[in-house]
Known about the structure:
Layout: E1 2-6, E2 9-16, E3 23-27, H1 38-44, E4 49-53, H2 70-83, E5 89-94, H3 96-107, E6 112-118, H4 127-140, H5 143-153, H6 156-161, H7 163-174, H8 178-190, E7 204-209, H9 217-226, E8 231-235, H10 241-244, H11 246-259
Helix pairs in contact: 1-11, 2-3, 4-8
Amino acid sequence: MSFIKADRARIFYRWDGAEGLPALVLSNSLGTTHAMWDAQIATLAEHFRILRYDSRGHGQSDVSPGPYDIALLARDVLALLDALELERVRFCGLSIGGMVGIWLGANAPTRVEQLVLSNTSAYIGSPELWNSRIETVRKSGMQALADTVIERWLTPRFRESSAETVRRIRDMLLTTPPEGYAACAAAVRDMDQRDLLTKVIAPTLVICGKHDPATPSEHGRFIAERIKGARLTELDASHLSNVEAAPAYNRTLLEFLANTN
């Protein structure tokens, strides 16, 4: 297994795809691991060397003391790029991964060649919701949130037709360390990156889910309207659009990454 050290935590990463191809970083959502991107790998690895990692507090990465903020999670990415001697990459993040992408695009523009912000928000609001989630997982563990979260992540139609995929995603959520989840949930709760959007200069694609209650389409439109030249695509999916609408997601991603100069 491969790790780098970033601000008192080990961050797990893995490569897919041939050496020499352009590097594409994929950043996972809150409550999942790098494996949430499995449905993208076969398609994308034909064109890119894909760098996946487990966000701090998730998967095989360390759970350092929280709470975290988006800047800390973004600096983990910069530490990863530095350790692997990657000067400039394409970056795709979903949910909290997209929030990390906004920070990188605004604060480390020389490191981001192209940017995909998927099912995300610059400001999510409702601190009461996040405080309740943090209290729940600390008191009762991830099981206490699982049903509610899965219902927000995936549409009823998909949950009924793709039981094995839903089970796999649910297992990722259930095995997320409660303290890691809580620390990252605090980062989402406290985030307000609305003023950073105009500082993003990388060619940007914003992806929304038509049925996403967590980061609704209007959040994506807000982002796209404030990043100069950003493209906006809405997919027939809920929050984990890369899972629920994988073929369309992959096509959208490839078209953007291939055609942006």
